[in-house]
């Protein structure tokens, strides 16, 4: 069974204090790993897709990296507007329906 | 980027009535659509997966006669909550995925359902 564990559950940072969110996964074969951002009362917003170990992607203050066991979402010099819940999901190569498995998310609060 | 819309964004209804929620992929063809339910401060709970032109596949514990899903075209899926009761009150979110299983899943903005 595919499993996704995100840590920490909650993270409080001061504005400008860089940190990383972790997404550990167990799948029979990775087809893709996805990062989303979700604001309260809204649907998740797509951030990144990573397909293979060693891959990295960046967008503004966010950088996602991938290894064979985990992914990190690095946040550099965060701002209060980066406050949100960050969700990680993995999609396995097996299973005909290709349904992504989501983690429970990391709730990030950035204080000014 | 890929855009998914949902309508309505919020709805209030009386117990016993049915409510239909629409999910549309605006700039791509969605071969697969997903419906999720989310309770406050909890993660996404997958309700069902639907492929265009096929019957939806429901997750264990989700009543298919209560939550009717229709994926009639490559850009439209609907979720109908039949005979709604207060316990059906929740945040419902749809998502859509394009041609391949590796394709990214894009989410709609969600629909807040309140059943009185």
Residues in helix, % of chain A: under 10%
Strand composition percent of chain A: over 45%
Give the beta-strand count of chain A: 11
| First-residue to last-residue Cα separation of chain A | 41 Å
Helical residue percent band of chain B: under 10%
State the order of secondary-structure elements of chain B, H for helix, E for strand: EEEEEEEEEEE
Please state roughly what percent of the residues of chain B sit in beta strands, choosing from under 5%, 5-15%, 15-25%, 25-35%, 35-45% or over 45%: over 45%
CA-based gyration radius of chain B: 13 Å
Assembly type = heterodimer
The averaged pLDDT of chain A comes out at 94
Tally of separate helices of chain B: 0
Number of H/I helices of chain A: 0
Largest interface: A-B, 23 and 25 residues
Question: Low-confidence spans of chain B: pLDDT under 50, at least 5 residues?
Answer: none
Radius of gyration of chain A: 14 Å
The overall average pLDDT of chain B, rounded, is 92
Shape of chain A: globular
Form type of chain B = globular
Poorly predicted runs of 5 or more residues of chain A: none
* Main sheet characteristics of chain A: 6 strands, mixed
What are the defining features of this structure?
heterodimer; A: about 110 residues; mainly beta; six-stranded mixed sheet; 11 strands; about 60% strand; globular; B: globular
Question: Would you kindly provide a written description of the structure presented here, covering whatever features stand out?
Answer:
The complex is a heterodimer of chains A (112) and B (116). Chain A is mostly beta strands and 112 residues long. Chain A has strands spanning 3-7, 10-14, 19-26, 30-38, 45-50, 56-59, 62-66, 70-75, 84-92, 101-102, 106-111. In chain A, strands 2, 4, 5, 9, 10 and 11 form a six-stranded mixed beta sheet that branches. Chain A has a five-stranded antiparallel beta sheet with strand order 1-3-8-7-6, with no helix packed on it. In chain A, strand 6 and strand 7 (62-66) form a beta hairpin. With 116 residues, chain B is mainly beta. At the A-B interface, strand 4, strand 5 and strand 9 of A face strand 9 and strand 10 of B.
């Amino acid at each position: 069974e595919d499993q996704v564990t995100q840590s920490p559950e909650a993270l409080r940072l001061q504005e400008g204090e860089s940190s990383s969110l972790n997404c550990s996964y167990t799948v029979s074969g990775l087809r893709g790993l996805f990062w989303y951002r979700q604001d309260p009362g809204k649907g998740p917003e797509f951030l990144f897709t990573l397909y293979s170990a060693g891959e990295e992607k960046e967008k503004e203050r966010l950088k996602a990296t991938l290894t064979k066991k985990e992914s990190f979402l690095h946040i550099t010099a965060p701002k209060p507007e980066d406050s949100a819940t960050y969700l990680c999901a993995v999609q396995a190569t097996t299973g005909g329906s290709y349904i992504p498995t989501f983690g429970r998310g990391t709730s990030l609060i950035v204080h000014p | 980027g890929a855009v998914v819309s949902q309508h309505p964004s919020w709805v209030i209804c009386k117990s016993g009535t049915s409510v239909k929620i629409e999910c549309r992929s605006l700039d791509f063809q969605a071969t697969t659509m997903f419906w999720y339910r989310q309770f406050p401060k909890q993660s996404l709970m997958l309700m069902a997966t639907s492929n265009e032109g096929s019957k939806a596949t429901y997750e264990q514990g989700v009543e298919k006669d209560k939550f009717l899903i229709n994926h009639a075209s490559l850009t439209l899926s609907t979720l109908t909550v039949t005979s709604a009761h207060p316990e059906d009150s929740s945040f419902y979110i749809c998502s859509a995925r394009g041609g391949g299983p590796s394709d990214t899943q894009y989410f709609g903005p969600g629909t807040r359902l309140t059943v009185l």
